[in-house]
């Protein structure tokens, strides 16, 4: 029995999108197209309808998918009976640039030190992109800033409240009332911190140019340039112990952002995705170890 081949078939039939399935596997889209043709040749009927909107699974395809899942379930039960069950459950976990820097190492350390059988792959993107990918089943779950759009099929469980700061170098303090053009340095254009600061600048008619820089240390170096500010998570700033920072207390700028755990409502309370959520919640009950 080639259980990996069966798992690949389930992936193709469940997602109904060969491009996204290719992203999630080590196959090219053309290779997956060949797999579909082979499946249809094996059972003698189409498993997908080709529509202008993309692939749509047929009734036969749905029945075949149910059959394949039954095989994998019985196979897992067999492995458990003989003591050879695979213990590590694989999770495709999404995180924003800020969140991965603060919590990524702590999550992996907690899984290893507590022998928790979860194999977590990290994907780093903006909160908006992560939100869409979990909704489209291109990702299992995500920990990120609370996105503006909420999908009805997803849970948005608040994990903690983060704060961010607007900072510059002590030698280059900015007077926003002068409305001089400034450069705003950010880790990600899609970050909710970035969005909040950009909206504040627009509301106060402060002209600005945004620069996306993926490294916190590089952002702090760039702050030595005149008329430059940055917006960063408070915990991130504390991690770098940067001494020459000026903090801005800006009126009508809410510097609190909710961090949420996003996953499908259909997940059971015993699923690996919910188990990972519990690991993250346990970390936040104690101070995060960044050593």
What would your notes on this structure say?
There is one protein chain. By secondary structure, this protein is an alpha/beta fold. The protein folds into 3 domains: 3-81, Winged helix-like DNA-binding domain superfamily/Winged helix DNA-binding domain (Arc Repressor Mutant, subunit A, Orthogonal Bundle), CATH 1.10.10.10; 89-161 and 257-285, Periplasmic binding protein-like II (D-Maltodextrin-Binding Protein, domain 2, 3-Layer(aba) Sandwich), CATH 3.40.190.10; 163-256, 3-Layer(aba) Sandwich (D-Maltodextrin-Binding Protein, domain 2), CATH 3.40.190. 43% of the residues lie in helices and 25% in strands. It contains 10 helices and 11 strands. It has helices spanning 3-15, 18-24, 29-43, 59-81, 97-113, 127-135, 192-203, 216-222, 234-240, 272-285; strands at residues 48-51, 54-57, 89-95, 118-124, 141-145, 154-169, 182-186, 208-212, 228-233, 245-248, 256-264. The strands form 2 sheets. Strands 3, 4, 5, 6, 7, 8, 9, 10 and 11 form a 9-stranded mixed beta sheet that branches. α5 links the parallel β3 and β4 (118-124). α1 (3-15) runs antiparallel to α4 (59-81). The longest helix is centred in the N-terminal third of the chain and has 23 residues, at 59-81. The radius of gyration is 23 Å and the shape is elongated. The chain starts with a helix and ends in a 6-residue tail after the last helix. Residues 287-291 have low confidence and may be disordered.
């Amino acid at each position: 029995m080639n259980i990996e081949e069966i798992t690949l078939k389930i992936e193709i039939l469940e997602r109904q999108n060969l491009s996204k399935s290719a992203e999630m596997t080590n196959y090219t889209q053309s290779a997956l197209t060949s797999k579909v043709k082979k499946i249809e040749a094996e059972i003698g009927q189409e498993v997908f309808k080709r529509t202008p909107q993309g692939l749509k699974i047929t009734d036969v395809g749905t029945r075949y998918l149910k059959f394949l899942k039954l095989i994998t379930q019985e196979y897992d039960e067999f492995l458990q009976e003989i003591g050879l069950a695979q213990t590590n459950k694989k999770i495709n976990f999404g995180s924003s640039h800020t969140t991965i820097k603060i919590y990524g190492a702590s999550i992996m350390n907690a899984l290893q030190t507590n022998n928790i059988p979860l194999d977590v792959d990290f994907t780093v993107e903006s909160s908006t992109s992560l939100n869409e990918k979990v909704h489209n089943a291109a990702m299992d779950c995500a920990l990120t800033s609370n996105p503006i759009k909420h999908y009805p099929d997803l849970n948005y469980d608040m994990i903690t409240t983060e704060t961010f700061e607007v900072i510059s170098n002590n030698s280059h303090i900015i007077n926003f009332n002068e409305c001089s053009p400034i450069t705003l340095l950010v880790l990600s254009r899609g970050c909710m911190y970035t969005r909040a600061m950009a909206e504040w600048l627009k509301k106060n008619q402060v002209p600005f140019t945004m620069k996306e820089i993926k490294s916190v240390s590089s952002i702090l170096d760039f702050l030595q340039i005149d008329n430059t500010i940055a917006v960063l998570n408070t915990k991130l700033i504390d991690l770098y112990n940067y001494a020459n920072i000026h903090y801005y207390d800006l009126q009508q700028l809410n510097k609190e952002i909710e961090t949420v755990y996003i996953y499908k409502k259909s997940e059971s309370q015993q699923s690996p995705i919910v188990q990972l959520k519990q690991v993250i919640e346990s970390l936040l009950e104690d101070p995060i170890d960044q050593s």
